[in-house]
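hey m, so remember when u said the tokens were messed up on ur end? i reran from scratch. heres the input so u can diff it against urs
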Amino acid sequence: MSSMPSFSQDGLDTLYWGFILLLAGSLLSLLVIANVAFAIVGAVFSIIGWVICIMGISALRRDYRAKVERREPSPPPPPASSSTPTCPTCGGQLTFVPQYQRWYCPVDQKYV
């Protein structure tokens, strides 16, 4: 059973704020028609936004790696149930033969 990995809130928050700054910087850069200062501020915001996005992605990758490394191996499967009857003569496990609707002992080579 596979489940979605859960990430730390810090990594997600960092990525979120990086995208916000990146979007704000892009919008300010589009205002180059109004004023060159807006374009410069927008470029700075965009660069800071990219850096913060990269930091957020790094934090998410680090969280994922840590989770994978500390993952314990899955427990072994439970032993097979002993619902198979045993031979009254030798005590070996019997095999059901559907064709004859009977139990067969391979050790004694006879039907029980």
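this time it looks ok to me. Residues 83-112 form one domain. if urs says something different then somethings off w ur setup not the seq
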